[in-house]
Amino acid sequence: MKSSALTRNTRNPVLRVAPASPAAAVAHFSASLAFHADVSDVAAALAADSAGDGGGDGGPGFVVVDSRSTESWDQGHVPGAIHLPTALIPEQAGHLLDRAVPVVTYCWGPGCNGATRAALALAELGYQVKEMLGGFEYWVREGFEFETWEGRERRAADPLTAPVGAADCGC
Question: 35 by DSSP, 3-state: which?
Answer without folding.
Answer: helix
